[in-house]
C-alpha cells in the first residue's frame, strides 16, 4: 500500500473518530440540558410542596388554639383561607388533583378536632415523601454536581426534617399549653427537638462542605438563635401549668420554622441559580457544538466532494497512464526484438505516427561527429522527396537538436512552408509535430510528423515514447559503431586470448591471416603451434615468469607460419584478471614487424653468404664482451681467413670463389648452431665467429673442429701450398672476464693470432688467452 493511501486512511479514521466524538459530546450536552430543565421543573414542584407543607404546618400549629378564646381567632380563619389558596395555587404545579381533595377531606371531617393534628401530620409526611418521589422523577437525585447534591440533600431531607420536627413540637407545645395535654406530649416535644437538633447538626455539617457558604452563615445563625430561644422557652414553660400564653409559644415556634423555611428557600434559590447557570452554559456549549458539527459536516461534504472529484480525475489519469505504460512497454518489447538500427528507426516512426494518427513523418538521426542529421526512416512519404542530410539548426528538425524540446505548430493558410522539413503534400494536414529523441541528455535524433487532427497533444506521452525510442536508437547506434570498431580490430589487429594455461580461446582474423591457420585450427591450441625454432627457449621462460606474476611482457618474436615460413611480431602480452585480481587468462596484441625485421636483417646480413656482416659483428662483439663481464663467463672469438684465396680466384674464377665463400659460410653455420653462437663475414674472404667456451681446451677443440670441417669439404684448390683443398687459417682469442680490454684490442689480438697462423704454414689455429 502506498504511503499516500495509508495517510488518507489514517486521516479518514481520525475524521470519523472526531465526528463521532463531537456527535456524542453534543448528544451528551443535549441530554444534560434536558436533564437540567427537568431538574428545574422538579425544583419548582418541590417549592410548591414546601409551600403546601408550610401552609399545612401553619394551620396544624394554629388549630389547637380555641377560635373563641384566642385573641387571634380571625387569624386562624385567615390561615385556613391561605391554606386553601395555597392548595389551589400548587395544584396546577403539582398536577395532582388528589392533594386538594385529600386536604378538603381532612378539613371537612366532623371529627377534626380529635384527629386533625394527626391527619395534617400525615398529609405533611405524605408531601415529604412526595418530595423524594419528585426528586427521583425529575432526576434531581442523580445530580452530578457535588454542591448541588448537598443543596438537594438540604432541600429534600435535612431541612424538611428540621422543619417538620420544629413544626411538630411547636404544634404539640401550643396544643398542650392551650387546649389539652396528652400524656406523652412532653416526651414528644423533647423527641422532636432532639430530631431537630440532629437534623440541624447535619445541616451544619453539610453546609461546612461548601466552599463558599457565606450566604448560608447568616441564615444558619438565625436558625440557631431561634432554636436556642425556643428550646429555652419550652424548657422554661414545661414545668409551669397551665402553660403560658399559647399564642406566644406558637409565635416562637413559628419563627424557628420560618427561619428553617428561609434556609430551605435559600437552598432552593441557590440550586435554581446553579441550574439556570448550567442551563446557560449548556445552551452555549450546545450552540458551539452544533456549530462545530455543522462546520465539520460541511467540511466533510466539501472534502468528500473534492476528494471524490480528485480521485475521479486521478482514476481517469491513472487509467490513461496505465494505457500509456502498456503502450510504452509494447514499444519497448518490439524494439528489443529488432536487430538493426534501420529496423528500430522504421518501427519507432511507424509506431508514433500511428499512435498520433499522423499522415506522414520522418526520423533523422543525429551524427555528433560530423554535426549533421541523416534521414533514417520515413512514414507515408517517399524518401526521395525528403532532403537526406540536414545541418544542425536547419529547419524545425535541425532547430530541435539545438533546443531539445517539442514543437507543435498549427497549419493555416498563412503558415510558412519553411516550418516543415518534410513538405506538406496533404491539404488536410492540421498540425506539425517535431520532437527530439533524447537519451541521457543528448539528442539522438528528431521525429517530425504531419497530423490530420489539430487537437492538443499530450507532450508527456510523446516524451515517454521518445525516451524509449531514443534509448534503443542510441544503444544500437553505439553498438553499430562498436561492431565496426571490433570488425576493424578483428581484421587489422593480430590479437589472441588464452585461458590461464595458455590454451587459445579467441583469435582475430588478422592473427589467422598472418599465421596461415584458420581460427578453428588455432582455438584450443597453445601458441607453440606458431613457435619458430629461431626463438630461444629462454625467451619463453622469461615470458611465462613475467606474465604469471601479473606483469605485462613485451618482445619482438619470430613466429612460424603454417606453411613453414615466418613472420615477425612485436608482441605485448597482458594477464586478464577477474574481479578479485586472479589471473583468468592472457591477451596478446601483436604488430607485424616482418618488413622492419627483414630490413634490419638485410642491414646486418652479408648479401653473398647470408651470414651476419661486419657491421653486425661490431655490435654483437661489444654486447658479448659486456655480457661476459656481467655473467662472468668466458667466450672465444675466432678470425678465419681462406688460404691462398687470391690464387683460387685467379685460377678457378671469381664466381667459383664466391661459391667457396658461400660453402665456408654454410659450414660455419652448421658447425656453430647453438643459439648463442654467431657467425660473421668480416670482409672479403675473412670470417669470424663468437661462441661460448668453458676453457681454453674447449676453445681449441671448437676451432680445430671448424678448421677440419672446412678441409673435409674437399674443395679442390691445387694452388694452396698448405693442402690440396680449400683450407682456413684461424686466429683465436679465448676471452676471460678478468680482462678489461676494448673490443678493438681483442680484435687486434685475434688478427695477430691469424697472422701467426698464416705465417706458420696456414691451415692451422693459433690461439691465445686474454
Ligand atoms: N671471389 C671472391 N673473391 C674475393 C671476394 N672478396 C675478396 N676476394 C678475394 O680474396 C683475395 C684475397 O687475397 P689475399 O688478401 O692476398 O690473401 P690470400 O690470397 O688468401 O693469401 P693468404 O691470406 O695469405 O693465404 C683477393 O684476391 C680478393 O679479390 C669475394 O667476395 N669473392
Automatic annotation (TrEMBL):
Gene Ontology terms, MF aspect: diguanylate cyclase activity
Pfam entry (one): GGDEF
Cellular component (GO) terms are: plasma membrane
Q: SUPFAM superfamilies this protein is in?
A: GAF domain-like, Nucleotide cyclase, PYP-like sensor domain (PAS domain)
The residues covered by the PAC domain are 553-605
Please name the GO terms of the biological process aspect recorded for this protein, alphabetically.
cell adhesion involved in single-species biofilm formation; negative regulation of bacterial-type flagellum-dependent cell motility
What SMART domains does this protein map onto?
A: GGDEF, PAC
Instruction: Give the EC number.
Output: 2.7.7.65
Give residue ranges for domain GGDEF: 633-770
Keyword terms of this UniProt record:
Membrane, Transmembrane, Transmembrane helix
Q: Which cofactor does it need?
A: Mg(2+)
What residues form the membrane-spanning segments? 7-27
Which residue ranges does the record assign to the PAS domain? 499-550
Q: Which reaction does it catalyse?
A: 2 GTP = 3',3'-c-di-GMP + 2 diphosphate
- Please indicate which superkingdom the organism of origin belongs to: Bacteria
The protein in question is named diguanylate cyclase
Q: Which organism is it from?
A: Methylomonas methanica (strain DSM 25384 / MC09)
